[in-house]
Amino acid sequence: MPPLPARSALITGAARRIGAALAEDLAAQGYCLHLHAHTSGALLEQVAEDLRTRHGVRVRTHLADLADVTAVRRLVHDLTEDPHPPALVINNASEFLGHYDRAECTDIDTVARTLMVNTAVPIALSGVAARGGNGHVVNITDAHTDLTCASHLPYDVSKAALTDATARLAVLLAPSVRVNAVAPALVLPPPGAGEAELHEMAGRAPLLRSAPLADIVAAVRFLTATGSVTGQTIMIDSGAHLVWDSESDLRPQPVPPHPDPAA
After folding, report:
1. Which of 141, 137, 221, 140 is nearest to 172 (CA)?
2. Distances (CA, A) of 229 to 51, 133, 177, 180
3. Could you tell me which of 135, 140, 179 has the C-alpha nearest to residue 159?
4. What is the SS3 assignment for 244?
5. Angle at the Cα of 199 (from 198 to 202), degrees rounded to 5?
6. pLDDT tens-digit profile of 184-234?
7. pTM (predicted TM-score)
8. Contact between 64 and 71 (Cβ < 8 Å)
9. Which pLDDT tens digit goes with each residue over 73-89?
């Protein structure tokens, strides 16, 4: 086992996509890593072993359902009791069903689970970064949560709340912890969509291209390295948030109305 580095980070939702890309970059920088997943345990172990082999860093994996309060308490305990508790916390895990139907948008279980995973747990895990002082929290939010899109209601409300919480936590936890956010869109196809849909949507953004994963990694690097920045959200979406709610056809489609029972 190589000597343990002084810097330690937690990434939730680290088995694939944005989380895995951030894990790769932090491991390359020599961070000791805590990687979390919910149901992707085998894939997470694969990612962890690959990082240990290629970068010689300590990687600990954590499986937890972030909608389960008991599981979250156990995760917080495991992180804080670890010899290298994370000073950098990246809240990347998300609960997202794609287009919710009307019943799901108001279903108490769906709404509660989405708010728990996307808002409540990131706030709670911010406290882990505060344990040792000189901590940093980066929340992965969403560039388009200010849209009035009925079929995304639970997700949009939860991510908008996390963006708002970023600024409030920055004040609450200062000066020992900085809190920032990265808000991506047009980075990867959403669940159920493919590269063609992503390419078509990105072609109508001001920069006429999608946003590469490398830009999210670079934004997190910038925020982590710049000690005077706190309470900020960086949009990584090729400028799509500037036009998405205009007259363009980027505007999401509304939920179809209930059928007329008399018809």
Report:
1. 137
2. 29, 16, 11, 8
3. 140
4. coil
5. 85
6. 988 877 666 678 888 887 788 888 888 889 999 999 999 999 999 999 999
7. 0.87
8. yes
9. 999 999 999 999 999 99
